[in-house]
């Protein structure tokens, strides 16, 4: 389905924020952090995680997303079989941590969904662990255009390892809420589930949501149980300041502070928080160090989320997600970083100087080679050229030259061209994620407000295969201006 740029940002945030919660909580698993303990993405914990490393929660969510991204119907048949096979593939990677129930099912390496469900049914004892809820977020992305399909898929995938109606309902409730948050930007889908669920299901969950909103973590401290895990996540979301997008890190920290199965409760909360606030609300410091099975980092989570939304349909409605990040462009992970260069290509002040410093001598050498060969007169205003990214966390630098601002001549088209020709070049390189600074807004004197409007207009109307465009703002005020322009 076709999403607007806000919806794209929110869809992009689902896996990213869930993984961020997971990696944040990983270092505190089975503990109850004291009030003065800082909550940071430190790794460690009982399984000796690396800082920023996500755990089984995200790994299993990615196993689902990998299948949904190819367009399989994950409710039944070959699609559900493929999800089961991905679970076994992950199990075979010998993960450091795995829930008891999931382990009991997957250790038999059941071939196909029916065999896996049968194995789950045959387990005895308590069967309503939080292990199916923790991985349900990508299901929402796969069924944004189909409310009933979303509920059916949530329940079917839960049943692969968790033969319990409460676990299935929890997955339905949360997946329904994530879907609603991506589409509408509110948390109303949590209560909205009670309106679409059977009467007895609504009667069961309604008071539990009340308790989460009015209680404390001590009221639902057994959060290895799916019910208490959902309540802890909902408590974290509803008990923290939600006046701006810092709600996302605040609520994840609260989920971890609640203690117990911290990586899982924060992963669950993260799926919904990311759907509400978007990828742009995930702090850059977290995004930089996020990583985990199967060898993925933050840009992969964004790409996979968008591929899950598209469900294998490579249609003309392919969407470019636009997000806003405040910070240093040289620290942003993207396939291509755009440099606001000058025509000489030999470095300068502002962003240009910072990119050359961070990229190292390889970048300058590549630019000198261009000057000595194809660009003896330098790069024209509005044009773009690519080089290595040297030491930057990117594959390419795309150098483009914005126009100087003029009070006597309208140079808007040249400024637009700096953006659109950079994106065209990114397409030809195969770059799927691209980060732009605000071009011409520094020494070239473009009024910031105008520079923002041209940037947003150029990027939102461009025809490109790039999945994610990150607009990097150097201060809060610029970030706010860009966000405002994007909502117009
Ligand atoms: Mg875990």
TrEMBL record:
Keywords: Magnesium, Metal-binding. Coiled coil: none annotated. Its cofactor is Mg(2+). Binds 2 magnesium ions per subunit. Gene3D superfamilies: ADP-ribosylation/Crystallin J1, Leucine Aminopeptidase, subunit E, domain 1. InterPro entries: Macro_dom, Macro_dom-like, Ribosyl_crysJ1, Ribosyl_crysJ1_sf. Mg(2+) binds at residues 55-57, 261, 263-264. GO terms for molecular function: metal ion binding. Residues 309-488 form the Macro domain. The keyword Magnesium applies. Pfam families: ADP_ribosyl_GH, Macro. The keyword Metal-binding applies. This is O-acetyl-ADP-ribose deacetylase.
């Amino acid at each position: 389905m076709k999403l607007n740029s806000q919806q794209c940002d929110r869809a992009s945030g689902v896996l990213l924020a869930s993984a961020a919660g997971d990696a944040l909580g990983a270092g505190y698993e089975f503990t109850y952090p004291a009030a003065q303990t800082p909550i940071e993405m430190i790794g460690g914990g009982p399984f000796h995680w690396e800082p920023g490393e996500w755990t089984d929660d995200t790994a299993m969510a990615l196993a689902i997303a990998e299948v949904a991204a190819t367009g399989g119907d994950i409710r039944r048949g070959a699609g559900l079989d493929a999800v089961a096979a991905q679970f076994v593939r992950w199990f075979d990677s010998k993960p450091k941590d795995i829930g008891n129930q999931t382990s009991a099912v997957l250790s038999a390496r059941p071939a196909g969904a029916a065999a896996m469900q049968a194995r789950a049914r045959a387990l005895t004892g308590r069967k309503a662990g939080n292990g199916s809820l923790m991985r349900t977020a990508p299901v929402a992305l796969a069924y944004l255009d189909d409310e009933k399909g979303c509920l059916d898929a949530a329940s079917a995938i839960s049943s692969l390892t968790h033969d319990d109606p409460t676990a299935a309902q929890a997955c339905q409730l949360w997946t329904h809420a994530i879907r609603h948050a991506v589409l509408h930007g509110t948390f109303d889908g949590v209560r909205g589930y009670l309106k679409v669920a059977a009467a007895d299901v609504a009667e069961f969950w309604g008071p539990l949501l009340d308790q989460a909103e009015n209680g404390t973590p001590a009221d639902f401290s057994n959060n290895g149980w799916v019910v208490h895990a959902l309540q802890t996540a909902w408590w974290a979301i509803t008990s923290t300041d939600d006046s701006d997008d810092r709600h996302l890190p605040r609520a994840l920290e609260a989920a971890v502070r609640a203690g117990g199965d911290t990586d899982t409760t924060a992963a669950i909360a993260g799926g919904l928080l990311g759907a509400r606030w978007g990828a742009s609300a995930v702090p850059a410091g977290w995004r930089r160090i996020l990583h985990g099975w199967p060898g993925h980092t933050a840009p992969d989570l964004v790409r996979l989320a968008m591929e899950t939304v598209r469900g294998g349909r490579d249609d003309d409605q392919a969407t470019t997600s636009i997000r806003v990040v405040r910070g240093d462009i040289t620290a942003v992970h993207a396939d291509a970083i755009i440099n606001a260069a000058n025509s000489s290509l030999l470095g300068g002040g502002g962003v240009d100087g910072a990119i050359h410093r961070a990229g190292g001598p390889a970048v300058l050498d590549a630019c000198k080679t261009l000057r000595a060969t194809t660009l003896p007169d330098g790069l024209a205003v509005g044009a773009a050229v690519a080089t290595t990214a040297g030491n930057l966390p990117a594959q390419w630098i795309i150098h483009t030259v914005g126009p100087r601002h003029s009070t006597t001549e309208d140079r808007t088209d040249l400024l637009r061209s700096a953006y659109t020709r950079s994106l065209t070049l990114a397409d030809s390189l195969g770059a799927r994620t691209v980060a732009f600074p605000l071009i011409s807004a520094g020494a070239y004197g473009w009024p910031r407000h105008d520079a923002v409007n041209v940037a947003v207009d150029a990027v939102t109307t461009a025809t490109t295969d790039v999945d994610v465009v990150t607009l990097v703002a150097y201060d809060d005020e610029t970030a706010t201006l860009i966000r405002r322009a994007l909502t117009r």
